[in-house]
């Protein structure tokens, strides 16, 4: 009873209650209305300063980036991997001409190898650069055809042969009773492709 009625305990309790009241008053009346918005603004300003520093670093690198882009453009212009044609229509004719040149370069006897037909092919998967393809059918012996393939795939610009199908066939008429055999050749069908320098639909 003497502890409960001690004035010092009453003063201590009053101080504690006063501190609690002041703290609640600060939180409810000062912090959420004045301090919290200032802290949020300070955080936003800090983020903006960091972004500004990053952008400033990027801007400072602009001359270096532009120089490298110019080097890439020069390299692309001089890159012999692409077809020199500006559009697909002229590139189709160019591919056909390159095929004929490969045949002339590797085959001395025209009877050994000949183009039966060739046509433009449009379609296929979308790629980063525009692909130009001709579909070819040839009648050719195996050895000269292998040399033609080597000529096509080891040239500039880069050419690609795919969808290769080979059938064995005989041609020529042999009268009954003769011992000679009809000539044997391969019916060969394949695609020859190259790439234009301009971007395809996938890269657009």
Overview of the molecule:
The chain has 204 residues and is α+β, with helices and mostly antiparallel strands. Helices cover 50% and strands 25% of the residues. The protein has four helices and four strands. The protein has a four-stranded antiparallel β-sheet, covered by helices on one side. Strand 1 (113-121) and strand 2 form a beta hairpin. Helix 3 (88-106) packs across helix 4. The longest helix has 54 residues, at 7-60. The chain starts with 6 loop residues before the first helix and ends in a 5-residue tail after the last strand.
Strand order of the largest sheet: 1-2-4-3
According to DSSP, the number of beta strands is: 4
Unreliably modeled segments:
178-182
User: What distance lies between the first and last C-alpha atoms, to the nearest angstrom?
Assistant: 90 Å
* Whole-angstrom Rg: 41 Å
What sequence of helices (H) and strands (E) makes up the elements?
Answer: HHHEEHEE
Query: Mind summarizing the main beta sheet?
Result: 4 strands, antiparallel
| Structural shape | rod-shaped
- Which structural class is indicated by helix and strand composition? alpha+beta
Percent helix range: 40-55%
What's the tally of helices? Answer: 4
What kind of oligomer do you see? single chain
Determine the strand fraction and express it as a percent band: 15-25%
Mean pLDDT: 78
